[in-house]
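User: I've been going back and forth on whether these two constructs are worth ordering. Before I decide, could you fold them both?

Assistant: Sure. I'll take them in the order you sent them. The first construct and its structure tokens:
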Amino acid sequence: MSYLPFFVVAWILGVGLYGIVTSRHLVHQIICLIVVQSSTYVLILGVGYVTGAVAPYFYDIPVHTPAVDPVVQALALTDVVVEAAVTALLLAFAIQAHKRFGTLDPHELVQLKG
């Protein structure tokens, strides 16, 4: 078992979280959230990877040949769809914040709370 995908996941997650914490622009924070979400793709695919395995949709392979689990691939695809929906929703919120308050700086938006 290789631990490289898990190190890549930790690195991508760290870079994304650093960007979220240090950013002073809502669109940049949304992009950093997309980076964090992409670490989950690598994690899901790293968990489901089998060395020397074939794709699960081949019907002419021998019976005891190892195959990759198709559920993991379906979860990764579902993760992509959820990420696209969340991104669209957050971008719509950012557009509305800019229209109403004239800024995309999260620190200035907190001061408008009241």
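The second construct, handled the same way:
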Amino acid sequence: MNDDPKMTPSLDGASIRAAAARIAPHVRRTPVLEVDGADFGLPGAQLVFKLEFLQHAGSFKTRGAFNQMLTRSIGPAGVVAASGGNHGAAVAYAAMKTRHPATIFVPTVASPAKIEQIRGYGARLEVGGDRYNDALAASEAFVARSGATAIHAYDQYETLQGQATVGLELEEQAPELDALLVAVGGGGLVGGIAAWYQGRLPVIGVEPEAAPTLTRALEAGEPVDAPAGGVAADSLAPKRVGTLMFPLAQRYLAGTVLVTDDAIRDAQRLLWKTLRIVAEPGGAAALAALVSGAWRPRGEKRIGVVLCGANTTAVNFA
């Protein structure tokens, strides 16, 4: 294992393939589901859903968590993570499986479903502050006094490598997509996927209007603070995107679009009504861009959509 900060891990096709092989015994190869776009108001299109909410711990975050655990040197103090919920659940799950102690910091906005998950995996849980950045500050103070290994939710190469395996897997399963929609929080998922495709496929980032972190960063030419609210605040609302993913977004993304909270709720309801899929708000955000018209196909026929999380107790989408 290597934990020398002077030796920066790479993020290219070879390193992503290596990460995929490394984590393969520990994560699920999640399926894809192809559906008629007419069922979602897009006649003539074929939607290809990547069902990443079926991953262990209920989200794509488990990929990055295991890649971290299997490449970092972890001492007796174990690992620490700050999270809106999904990353904390993923780190707690991976720590349980690799037999490392874990301490997870989450803000008060974290959903009860995610808090219950983290506790169920045996991690020590600290709840405090209003938003993700409050939990991050508390986790950094804990690292300073304990010596625990910090597992960042999106701004470490090992995390990005793990999340990038979603793109590798999807290209193997659905090699002829015309575009791909991916939700954006801190940018680990969309940055990793962009690093995998490297412009071979138009990848569009989807953010809530109440948390336009990547959109603001692209406008400013660098990561900047943005509002951090909305219905998906427990998964898509850091104050700013990661510094490591930002150059990837600048170079490889086809752009970003913003969706309203109402559009996210509509996408949740439509997934339930049409496919009996329960997605959390962040998990349905990418689809919200399509069903609301925030992103409209211009000739694209096969459109990929990553459904990235399902950690919610809100199953009444009537």
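Notes on the second construct follow. Confidence is low (pLDDT under 50) at residues 1-7. The beta strands are 32-36, 46-51, 79-82, 102-106, 124-127, 149-150, 179-183, 203-208, 255-259, 302-307.
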